[in-house]
Each structure stands twice: as structure tokens, then as C-alpha cells.
């Protein structure tokens, strides 16, 4: 029984990672339909919603980068929603409002700390635009980001469009170097097969565009998200993407719509961020399983496959690591895995340097450290996520106060 | 991050400021949900502590076995153990080979003795033959010339006799004429003719004697076929002796080689009898062995105490003594790291036989002082 289980796990891992990455390479270079038909003449009105919590001056820089967008100024606005920041974030927002008069900047403030998802919903109430773009307040955006995102909505059936998230600080440390490689390969390879079927399963919350009427339709579900009565404030991007798909719309990532985020540069912060993401994955998995027939009936098989196997991969990763550590603990430290990891790392680093010089990683051997990190994360994150589903802690910010379910509901 | 120094205090632009979000009435958690959450939290905390304990324990075990140099891994060798059976099979084969070699050696020794005896008898013939040849040659040298002289004399005599016999034909004719003329009686004539025939016969005998004598002289004075036969016999005798020498030499070498092989096999068997697999296969009592990696060799001295511990490292108790170590190299899988390692086997005298089933035991002292 045990060998069969082990084989199943290995096959599953192969399907999840190797197959998707390989498909990504093939599709990227061979199928034109992988890319959406963009119409730059289509210029709907846009509200850029920017929830903010304890970002300080960064929020100013974010609005500044948005203000430089190559998009008609009269067709977009920024709605910044402060989620009761304990620092001077709101002052910076006000300053940005004053300084960047070329665009319309509107500011809002929650009465109590409500979390990102509800802040977005609150900001949404003030928007009348056709397209909503939700962004992270710690990102910097390419001037073409809005133009690129809206151009994709010309394709009928597209409900949500995401942009590519690059790393602003690739060479802060080995940890940021690792994340740069992961971000790059995720957007440029892993998500490509999903793009092909217009069924991206998770559009990054850093740069998330959605039709307003669709978001309004989903909003009640966002506000009422809870886990046995405990409000869920995390993983709104995954939830929104999932809901978009379930409502029969397509999702897409336009890798030409760029934004740059500052990734965690210390292990504890990275761990907390990854834990939050893992929790979202697990939560999404449970939701998928609970409504599996609905998924199978409504969604593209590739989508169902991804929605089931990706989170399962997290659980499988845990089983693989436990199996490996108990049966052959030093196998991962052998020369073959190490050389393979370093080889893959070196290739990806070269590719990044060639095609995205801004993200060029100065530590090509950092990918080797990623193997150690993935072992640790696989071992800790999944059980920890499974056991802390009741947590509302964002992890990478100062501890927010918990809002009872529905508190932020208007 | 510092607040910007410009335009303090910052204020909202009235037209673009949004009304604050008001708190709505919180939805109360149902009792059912509260119970679920409470149970979940208890379960989660328990699981997390267990996972944490597992991980810490695992890391500690890994670290412990990375630095510990006194552990050994007990091995239970059953009588039906494949290695033991193979070992025993090879041992039996070796012993059988020794027995076969002994029989061969015995046969060779007997054959060799026979060959040596035959060779000695052949060698004994050689001087006698040589002596006979010399004696014969010496005799021939003496009698040969005498016979040659007699032969010549005989030839001369016969020649004279031949001349006389030529006259006898006239005499015979005269007798016949005298008989016809009645000068002599028939009886006288017959007597006279008989005398003539006798003379002729005597001449013929003499001629035969001459030929025989010539022949005899030839034998005595030249090397004839008889002499050659003798020489051939002599050569055959020597050849047979030489062949025997070769055969004896080969047999002696074969004997030596087989003796050495027997010695080697005996030595190998002797060494094999010191192997744990032989002891295991041949002994009636159950024996206990353990694998000791080379890194821990210093701890594996005969007479050392053996300790068995709970969780492979703590709460140890003495379970026996190390009886002996075996020199042969063995490879085994590390009980914790699962890598292949080199080492050797030791035999344990266990007071607590269940310790033979432990994953590891410790030699010399307790690994953690308790």
C-alpha cells in the first residue's frame, strides 16, 4: 500500500509542477491563442481602488506611479481607502491627493480596521466606473499597466484580468532573490496553461482588474466570507478569481501589465506571508471540494484540475517531505538534486536577466537555498495553515483588530 | 517613515473625501459555531504541538546520530539467513574439495611411487646391458680376426677340394667303363661311386661351413642388425626412463600444488569459522550480532558493555557485553540517515534478548548519561 501511495504522490507532484511548467514553455512559444486579443482603443472608465494599512510613504509612491499612467486622465480615478493605519499613511495619502492633481484622487477611511477585502468593498461603494482595478498600496505600477489591463476586457467573456507582479528588491537578500525567481517563473510559465483556457485560478491582488458589475455581484459574498462565524479577511484575490470563474467569466493574466512589489526580505515575514497564502489555498481547496460537482459542471477541465491539484500539491508537498525525511533523509542533499536545483536556478536567472533586466538576480546560486526553504515551508506551512484557519492575522503588518462578521458591511 | 514636512497639518480635500465607513451590527456567532471553533482550536493546538514535538525530536535525533560515535545496529541472523546459507554452502563445498584433493593426492602418491620403482628397475638394466655390449664387442674383437683367418684357410681348402672333385668326374666315368667292360663287379662299382658321392657331400658340407664361417666373420667384424637391435633396446630403455622422469616431475608438482591448495582451503575454512555467518549457521544457540560503522570502531572493544535505550537515545539500561569483533567488512544502511555505510560486525552476549530487535544499541557507555 505504502509504495502505491508514494507513487501516487510522485505522479501528482509531476502533474502539478513539471507538466504545468512544461506546458507553459510550449504554449508560450507556440500558441498565439494563449494571449488575449487586446484592443487599446477600448478605454472604459476605471477606478483604481487602493486599500492601505500602515504603508507610510510607500502609499504616496504608489499613487505617484499611478498618476503617471498612459491612460486618459478623465477616464480614471484613484480611490484610496485607509484601513485605520497606525502610522502616517493617511497623511501621505492626503499629500498625494494634493500633489497629483492631474488625476482624481479620492480618499476614504474605515472606522475600524476591517482588512483588505472589506476595504476594497468599501472603496467600491464610491466608484461608478466600468472597470475596477484593485491594487496593493506597496506596489509601483508601470505607466502602461492600466492601458494593458483594460485592453484585455475587449475580449468577450473576460471577467477579471491580472497583471504581472515583479520584484522591486530582487537583490536585498537571498530570500528576495529566491522570490524573484519564483514570481517570474509563476507568471511566465506556471500560469500560461491557465491563460490558454482563460481560467487563471488566482490573479494576484497586487494588480487585479475586474468588471464593476461583476465585483458588485460578488461583493456580498466577500463581505460574508467566514469560517464558522469568524470573518475571513485574507485571500480575497484568490476568492475573487474563483468567484469570477464560477459566474462563467474568463480570467486572464496580461504579462505586459506590470507592477512591482517589495517582497519580504526576512525569513519571519516571508514565513508569515507564505502562511497566509497557504491558508487561502487550503480554504479555497475546501470550498472547491464542497462544491466540486458545480465546478465540474461549470468550469473548464483545466480549471478544475488546477483548482484541485494546486492546493492538493500543498498537502502532497507535506507528505513528500515527511516521507522523504523518514525514509531517506539525506536524499535531497545529494549531488544530483543539488545540481538540478542549481541548474534550474541558473537557467531561470539567465532568462530573467535577459528578458527582465530590472529583476536580474545577483545571486544565481540562491535557487539552491530555495530547495531548503521549500522543504521547511512544505513541512511547516501546510499543517500550520490547517491548524490556524481561524486566524485573521495578516502577518506582514502590525496586528490588526478583528472585525466581527459583517461589521464592515454597509 | 517620517510624515512629510510640507503643508502640515494635512487635511482632506472636501470634495474628494469619502464618508467614513460605519460599523454595522455584528453578526453573532451561533453556539454551534462556537463549539466547533473551540473544538477546532483544541485539536489544532494539540496537532501543532505534536508536529512541533515531532520536528524538534526528529531534528534532535538527526543531530544526535550525526555526532554520536558509540552506536551499533543489532542484526538478527536467522539460521535460514541467505548469507549464512550461502556461507555454509560454500564451506561444505570447500570441505568436499579438500576431501577430493586428498583422494587425488593419495592416488598421485601411489602412482609416483610406482613410477619411481619402475624407473629404478629400468635404470638397473642399463649397466647390465652396457656390460653385455662391451663384453660382446670385446669377444668379437678377439674372435673376429681368428675366424677370418680360418675362413680364408677354409676357402683355400675348399678350392683345393673343388679341383680334386673335378677329377672325380673322370674317375666316375672310368668306374662306369670298367663296370661296363666287366673289369669290376657291380658291387665294387657301387662302393667306388658311393665313395665319390661321399667326397662330394663332404665338399658341399665344407662349402656350407665356409659360408657360415664367412657369415660369422661378418657378424664379428662389422656392426650388424643384431647390434643395432641391442642399441635400439638401449635407446628405448633410456627413453622410457626419461618419460618416467617427466611423469614423476609432473606428478610431484601436482602433488605439491594440491597440497598447497589443501592448505589454502584449510586456512580459508579456518578463517571462515571465525565469521559470524558460520557461527550463526553452525551454532545451535541463537547468537546476537550488531553492525558497527567504522566511525564508531573505537567504542567496539571486546568486553564493552552494551546499552539499549528508549527512543534510541534516552533512559538506557545495560543489556549485555560485547563478546568479539569480526574483521570482515560489511555494508549496511544507516538506521537513521538511510545512507549506505561501511563497518564490521560484532557478536553480543545479551542478557535481554529483546534488545536484539532494537534499532540501535550503544557500546561502552550510555550516550546521554542517563
How are the SSEs placed, and which strands pair?
The complex is a heterodimer of chains A (410) and B (370).
Chain A lengths: L1 H29 L15 E7 L5 H10 L8 E7 L6 H11 L4 E6 L6 H9 L6 E5 L3 E3 L3 H8 L5 E10 L6 H17 L1 H5 L10 E5 H12 L2 E2 L2 E2 L4 H11 L3 E12 L5 H24 L1 H7 L2 H27 L7 H21 L10 H22 L23
Parallel strand pairs in A: 1-2, 1-4, 2-3, 6-10
Antiparallel strand pairs in A: 4-7, 5-10, 6-7, 8-9
Helix pairs in contact in A: 1-6, 1-12, 2-3, 4-8, 6-14, 8-9, 10-12, 10-14, 12-14, 13-14
Chain B lengths: L30 H37 L3 E5 L6 H99 L5 H36 L3 H48 L3 H7 L5 E6 L11 E6 L3 E20 L6 E11 L10 E3 L7
Antiparallel strand pairs in B: 1-2, 1-6, 2-5, 3-4, 3-6, 4-5
Helix pairs in contact in B: 2-3, 2-4, 2-5
Category by helix and strand content of chain A: alpha/beta
CATH architecture of the largest domain in chain B: Orthogonal Bundle
Oligomeric state as shown: heterodimer
Structural class of chain B: alpha+beta
Give the name of the CATH architecture of chain A.
Alpha-Beta Complex
Strand content of chain B: 5-15%
Largest interface: A-B, 52 and 44 residues
Query: What percent of residues of chain A are in strands?
Result: 5-15%
If you compute it from the alpha carbons, what radius of gyration of chain B comes out, rounded to the nearest whole angstrom? 60 Å
Low-confidence stretches of chain A: 399-410
Strand order of the largest sheet of chain A: 3-2-1-4-7-6-10-5
Radius of gyration of chain A: 21 Å
* Span of the ends, CA to CA of chain A: 54 Å
* Count of folded domains of chain B: 3
Give the overall shape of chain B, derived from the CA principal axes.
rod-shaped
What can be said about the biggest beta sheet of chain A?
8 strands, mixed
How many strands appear in the DSSP assignment of chain A? 10
Count the helices of chain A. How many? 14
Amino acid at each position: 500500500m505504502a509504495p502505491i501511495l508514494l507513487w501516487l504522490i510522485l505522479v501528482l507532484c509531476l502533474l502539478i509542477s513539471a507538466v504545468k511548467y512544461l506546458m507553459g514553455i510550449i504554449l508560450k512559444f507556440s500558441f498565439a491563442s494563449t494571449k488575449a486579443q487586446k484592443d487599446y482603443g477600448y478605454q472604459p472608465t476605471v477606478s483604481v481602488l487602493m486599500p492601505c494599512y500602515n504603508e507610510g510613504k510607500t502609499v504616496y509612491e504608489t499613487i505617484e506611479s499611478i498618476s503617471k499612467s498612459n491612460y486618459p486622465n478623465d477616464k480614471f480615478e484613484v480611490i484610496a481607502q485607509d484601513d485605520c493605519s497606525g502610522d502616517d499613511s493617511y497623511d501621505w495619502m492626503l499629500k498625494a491627493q494634493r500633489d497629483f492633481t492631474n488625476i482624481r484622487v479620492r480618499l476614504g477611511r474605515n472606522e475600524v480596521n476591517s482588512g483588505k477585502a472589506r476595504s476594497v468593498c468599501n472603496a467600491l461603494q464610491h466608484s461608478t466606473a466600468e472597470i475596477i482595478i484593485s491594487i496593493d498600496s506597496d506596489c509601483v505600477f508601470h505607466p502602461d499597466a492600466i492601458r494593458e489591463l483594460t485592453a484585455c476586457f475587449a475580449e468577450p467573456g473576460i471577467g477579471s484580468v491580472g497583471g504581472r507582479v515583479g520584484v522591486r528588491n530582487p537583490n536585498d537578500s537571498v530570500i528576495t532573490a529566491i522570490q524573484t525567481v519564483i514570481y517570474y517563473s509563476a507568471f511566465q510559465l506556471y500560469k500560461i496553461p491557465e491563460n490558454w483556457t482563460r481560467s487563471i485560478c488566482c490573479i494576484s491582488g497586487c494588480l487585479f482588474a475586474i468588471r464593476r458589475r461583476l465585483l458588485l455581484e460578488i461583493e456580498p459574498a466577500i463581505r460574508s466570507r467566514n469560517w464558522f462565524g469568524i470573518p475571513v479577511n485574507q485571500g480575497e484575490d484568490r476568492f475573487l478569481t474563483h468567484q469570477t470563474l464560477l459566474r462563467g467569466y474568463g480570467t486572464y493574466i496580461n504579462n505586459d501589465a506590470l507592477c512591482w512589489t517589495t517582497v519580504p526580505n526576512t525569513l519571519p515575514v516571508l514565513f508569515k506571508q507564505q502562511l497566509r497564502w497557504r491558508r487561502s489555498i487550503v480554504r479555497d481547496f475546501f470550498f472547491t471540494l464542497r462544491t466540486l460537482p458545480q465546478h465540474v459542471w461549470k468550469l473548464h477541465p483545466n480549471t478544475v484540475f488546477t483548482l484541485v491539484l494546486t492546493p492538493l500539491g500543498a498537502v502532497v508537498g507535506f507528505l513528500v517531505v515527511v516521507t522523504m525525511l523518514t525514509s531517506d533523509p539525506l536524499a535531497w542533499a545529494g549531488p544530483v538534486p543539488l545540481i538540478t536545483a542549481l541548474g534550474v536556478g541558473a537557467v531561470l536567472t539567465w532568462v530573467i536577466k535577459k528578458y527582465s533586466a530590472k529583476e536580474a538576480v545577483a545571486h544565481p546560486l540562491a535557487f539552491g537555498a530555495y530547495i531548503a526553504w521549500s522543504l521547511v515551508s512544505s513541512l511547516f506551512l501546510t499543517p500550520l495553515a490547517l491548524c490556524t484557519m481561524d486566524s485573521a492575522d495578516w502577518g506582514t503588518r502590525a496586528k490588526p483588530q478583528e472585525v466581527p462578521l459583517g461589521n464592515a458591511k454597509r | 517613515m517620517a510624515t512629510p514636512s510640507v503643508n502640515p497639518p494635512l487635511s482632506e480635500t472636501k470634495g474628494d473625501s469619502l464618508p467614513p465607513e460605519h460599523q454595522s451590527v455584528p453578526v453573532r456567532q451561533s453556539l454551534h459555531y462556537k463549539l466547533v471553533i473551540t473544538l477546532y482550536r483544541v485539536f489544532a493546538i494539540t496537532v501543532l504541538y505534536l508536529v512541533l514535538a515531532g520536528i524538534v525530536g526528529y531534528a534532535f535525533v538527526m543531530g544526535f546520530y550525526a555526532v554520536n560515535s558509540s552506536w551499533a545496529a543489532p542484526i538478527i541472523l536467522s539460521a535460514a539467513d541467505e548469507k549464512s546459507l550461502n556461507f555454509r554452502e560454500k564451506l561444505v563445498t570447500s570441505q568436499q574439495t579438500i576431501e577430493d584433493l586428498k583422494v587425488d593426492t593419495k592416488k598421485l602418491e601411489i602412482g609416483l611411487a610406482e613410477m619411481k620403482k619402475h624407473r629404478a628397475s629400468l635404470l638397473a638394466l642399463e649397466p647390465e646391458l652396457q656390460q653385455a655390449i662391451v663384453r660382446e664387442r670385446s669377444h668379437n674383437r678377439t674372435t673376429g680376426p681368428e675366424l677370418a683367418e680360418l675362413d680364408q684357410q677354409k676357402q683355400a681348402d675348399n678350392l683345393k677340394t673343388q679341383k680334386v672333385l673335378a677329377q672325380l668326374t673322370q674317375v666316375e666315368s672310368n668306374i662306369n667303363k670298367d663296370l661296363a667292360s666287366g673289369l669290376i663287379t657291380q658291387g665294387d662299382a657301387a662302393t667306388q661311386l658311393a665313395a665319390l658321392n661321399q667326397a662330394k657331400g663332404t665338399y658341399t658340407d665344407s662349402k656350407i661351413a665356409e659360408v657360415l664361417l664367412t657369415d660369422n666373420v661378418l657378424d664379428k667384424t662389422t656392426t650388424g642388425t643384431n647390434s643395432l637391435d641391442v642399441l635400439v633396446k638401449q635407446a628405448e630403455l633410456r627413453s622410457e626412463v626419461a618419460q618416467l622422469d617427466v611423469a614423476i616431475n609432473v606428478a610431484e608438482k601436482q602433488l605439491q600444488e594440491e597440497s598447497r591448495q589443501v592448505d589454502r582451503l584449510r586456512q580459508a575454512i579456518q578463517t571462515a569459522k571465525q565469521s559470524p555467518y558460520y557461527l550463526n549457521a553452525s551454532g545451535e544457540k541463537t547468537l546476537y550480532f550488531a553492525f558497527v560503522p567504522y566511525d564508531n570502531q573505537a567504542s567496539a572493544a571486546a568486553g564493552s558493555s552494551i546499552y539499549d535505550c528508549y527512543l534510541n537515545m534516552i533512559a538506557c539500561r545495560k543489556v549485555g557485553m560485547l563478546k568479539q569483533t569480526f574483521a570482515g567488512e560489511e555494508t549496511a544502511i544507516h538506521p537513521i540517515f538511510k545512507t549506505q555505510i561501511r563497518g564490521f560486525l560484532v557478536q553480543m552476549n545479551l542478557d535481554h534478548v529483546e534488545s536484539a530487535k532494537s534499532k540501535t544499541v550503544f557500546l561502552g557507555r550510555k550516550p546521554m548519561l542517563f
